[in-house]
Amino acid sequence: MSPAPEPTRAPVLTVRDVCKRYGDKHAVHAIRFDVAPGEIVGLLGPNGAGKTTTINMVLGVLEPSAGQILIDGHDVSRARKTALASTNFAAVYAPLPGNLTVEQNLRIFGLIYQVQPLQPRIDALLQQFDLLNFRDTRCGLLSSGEQTRVCLAKALLNRPKLLLLDEPTASLDPSTARDIREQIRRIAKDDGGGILWTSHNMVEVEEVCDRVLIMSHGRVLLEGDPRRLPAAHNADSLEDLFVRLARDPANGAEASR
To answer: Which domains does the chain have, with CATH numbers?
Structure first.
């Protein structure tokens, strides 16, 4: 008798026909995608493609003009507090308050997320991200790599089912960036949460992401395995495919039909 198939796990993020309009202009136009538990999905595109707008709609910072966003089955527009309780976020452009120590920052955000019990969770994250020696150091005095690790620790305080990472390794040196990538891969594997990751580093994307979505002018043009997409579209590399679509989105629209 053949083994029973594993049950299909519901997506931690579901985006259906989501649009964001400003007057007559579409910043995001009818995008659809899912993020599964334990999956790392890369959201790629040139500046102005709609990536940050998409993330801000997932976070409830912006309200979609149309469409639906579900986090762990909860509609962000109707049950925002419940949906976002399962979510967290980290980005290089959103550093933690520099005048507070590492532990003070984690404690304040832990209280915001109502993490219980809080102190053991803080201690575990300080250990996980090799921050024990910086517990009482002000975040403004940390290196870029150390600040990134603190931001990731903060982003895991509430054990999110959906983690949003906007350029998490930007401005880091190659060695530090590699360490951060390894930690993020372990987070997805060990904690089972889904990760939506934006990056302009195509080598990084190929190394880390299970699947990518390539956006341009507010639309998702292509979707698939970052290691297979280039060959499927006669490109030498993911970077070459990215550049081609950034320069001529019509190529992607044609290929996705």
So the answer is: 13-86+164-255 (3.40.50.300), 95-159 (no CATH)
What's phi and psi for 203, nearest 5 deg? -65, -40
Q: Any residues with CB less than 8 A from the CB of 79 and at least 6 apart, and which? A: none
Query: Phi and psi dihedrals of 224, rounded to 5?
Result: 160, -170
Q: Give the DSSP letter string of 114-165.
A: T-SSHHHHHHHHHHHTT-GGGTTSBGGGS-HHHHHHHHHHHHTTT--SEEEE
Q: What is the pLDDT along the chain (257 residues), one digit of tens a residue?
A: 445 444 457 899 999 999 999 998 999 999 999 999 999 999 999 988 999 999 999 999 999 999 999 999 999 999 999 999 999 999 878 889 999 999 999 999 999 999 999 999 999 999 999 999 999 999 999 998 899 999 999 999 999 999 999 888 887 888 888 888 888 898 898 888 999 999 888 888 999 999 999 999 999 999 999 999 999 999 999 999 999 988 877 665 444 44
Q: Is 71 left (phi over 0), alpha (psi -120 to 50) or beta?
A: beta
